[in-house]
């Protein structure tokens, strides 16, 4: 599945930006305007498809990586995961090593796209999008997936209309826990202050990225791989069962 530059830009900054920005243009400083949502485990169910796809892609190219090792990278850029293990465990160097990493990542992408053709959304996620958008909030997504995987998920579910920006690991120089995807979402949504941003995710890396971005709201959800005790160890403002509870949290606290 090929994504052109024009399509990528369309995903990053949707036509809905202007109306919703205008709706909250008079908001007081610190009022949440932009809610940045992780994808896998946060708005889409996590059935372990990504670790399985990574493990299979590595194995196909004779690189041994265990499920436990992959688990430590949940929420990270999948391209960075591939580069890390190829660099660490392949005997190839230079251009040959880079070519191998590209082949492994291509294989992983194909497997992930196929797996996500049937993975359902988190219960109540779409209703939460509707409620938040109706109240004037901007929504953006960030993900450790590349553009092709994210585009296939959003197109299948018809979710493009809810999101002002959909940022992937392909759009930044460094994935989580770096804050750059959040900053990129802010740029696309024309939101200038981190005091007007909330980040939501299901992994420690999601929360670490939000903390590194110094956003005002930092919400962990228990619908994905992150356990409550893991998320509670990270900086957070709220820990909730799932994104379905987010509209109530925003209404009561922000």
Classified in CATH, the superfamily of the largest domain is HAD superfamily/HAD-like
CATH first level of the largest domain? Alpha Beta
What count of helical segments does DSSP give? 12
Share of residues in strands: 5-15%
Query: What is the end-to-end distance?
Result: 40 Å
Coarse structural class: alpha/beta
Helix and strand sequence: HHEHHHHHEHEHEHEHEH
How many β-strand stretches?
6
Main β sheet profile: 6 strands, parallel
Mean pLDDT: 89
**Ranges with pLDDT <50 over ≥5 residues?**
1-29
Write a brief structural summary.
This protein has helices at residues 5-12, 17-23, 49-60, 67-71, 78-89, 94-115, 125-134, 147-157, 180-189, 204-213, 228-232, 246-253, and strands at 34-38, 138-143, 165-168, 197-201, 217-221, 238-240.
Describe the structure.
The longest helix is centred in the middle third of the chain and has 22 residues, at 94-115. This protein has two domains: 5-46 and 120-253, Rossmann fold (3-Layer(aba) Sandwich), CATH 3.40.50; 49-115, DNA polymerase, domain 1. It has helices at 5-12, 17-23, 49-60, 67-71, 78-89, 94-115, 125-134, 147-157, 180-189, 204-213, 228-232, 246-253, and strands at residues 34-38, 138-143, 165-168, 197-201, 217-221, 238-240. The radius of gyration is 18 Å and the shape is globular. A six-stranded parallel beta sheet has the order 3-2-1-4-5-6, sandwiched between helices. By secondary structure, the protein is of the alpha/beta class. It is built from twelve helices and six strands. Helix 3 (49-60) packs antiparallel against helix 6, helix 5 crosses helix 6 (94-115) and helix 6 runs parallel beside helix 8. Helix 8 links the parallel strand 2 and strand 3. Residues 1-29 have low confidence and may be disordered.
């Amino acid at each position: 599945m090929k994504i052109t530059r024009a399509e990528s830009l369309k995903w990053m900054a949707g036509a809905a930006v202007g109306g919703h920005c205008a709706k909250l243009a008079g908001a007081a400083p610190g009022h949440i305007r932009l809610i940045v949502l992780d994808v896998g485990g946060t708005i889409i169910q996590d059935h372990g498809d990504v670790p399985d796809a990574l493990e299979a892609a590595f194995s196909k190219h004779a690189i041994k990586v265990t499920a436990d090792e992959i688990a430590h990278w949940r929420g990270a850029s999948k391209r960075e995961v591939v580069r890390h293990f190829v660099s660490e465990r392949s005997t190839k160097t230079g251009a040959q090593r880079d070519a191998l990493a590209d082949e492994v990542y291509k294989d992983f992408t194909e497997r992930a796209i196929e797996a996500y053709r049937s993975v359902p959304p988190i219960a109540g996620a779409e209703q939460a999008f509707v409620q938040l958008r109706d109240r004037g909030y901007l929504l953006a997504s960030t993900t450790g997936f590349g553009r092709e995987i994210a585009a296939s998920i959003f197109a299948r579910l018809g979710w493009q209309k809810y999101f002002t920006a959909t940022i992937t690991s392909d759009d930044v120089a460094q994935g989580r826990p770096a804050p750059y995807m959040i900053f990129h979402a802010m740029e696309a949504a024309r939101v200038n202050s981190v005091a007007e941003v909330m980040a939501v995710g299901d992994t420690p890396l999601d929360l670490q990225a939000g903390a590194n971005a110094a956003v005002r709201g930092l919400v962990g959800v228990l619908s994905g791989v992150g356990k409550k005790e893991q998320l509670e160890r990270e900086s957070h403002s709220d820990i909730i069962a799932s994104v379905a509870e987010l509209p109530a949290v925003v209404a009561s606290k922000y």
